Target: UDP-glycosyltransferases domain-containing protein
Amino acid sequence: MLRDKGYQPAQESQLDAPVTELSTSSAVHGVIRELISLIMTATASSSGLILNTLDALEAAELASLRRDLATVPVFDVGPLHKLLPATMKSSSLLRPDRGCLCWLDAQAPASVLYVSSGSLASVSAADLEETAWGIAGSGRPFLWVLRPGLVRGAPSSEPPPLPDGFGAATQEEVLAHPAVGGFWTHCG
Model:
């Protein structure tokens, strides 16, 4: 519902802004407040908070957590995805296209731009086309993950209208590939 209206994941400065499509029922707010209170109580009485991230990636957020939870140690132990067996690495709901890994094998080290909009972001058809021309115009090899529901107003069951050869990829394997030299993401 929100993605169809063009809403993107909130920036930190917008976290207190109301979302008009969500219920303002005090009962719902009470349940949410109670849940947050339970989480905070459990965290405050725990021996520590273990997060699948790393300081180099989220230094400001980790510093804020450590400041806010001064009595609870916060451990950044990630990324943990490389410890999973290959059969468990994909959390995608789409069937991964392994052909992209063969294509990556043929590319020079650190030469490919990997572009992914994630599972929540949406764009207009015009923005998708403009982005495609911009990436193609860069002259750099790129691997772009496009999923059904990315284009606002298009049927969410259909992938974006692009040429054959586009498909879902196993993100973890692609990001770990030596040919990938850059990652363009929606940051959400």
Observations:
- The mean pLDDT is 77.
- The chain has two domains: 3-76, 83-185.
- The beta strands are 49-51, 74-76, 112-116, 142-145, 180-185.
- Residues 26-44 form the longest helix (19 residues).
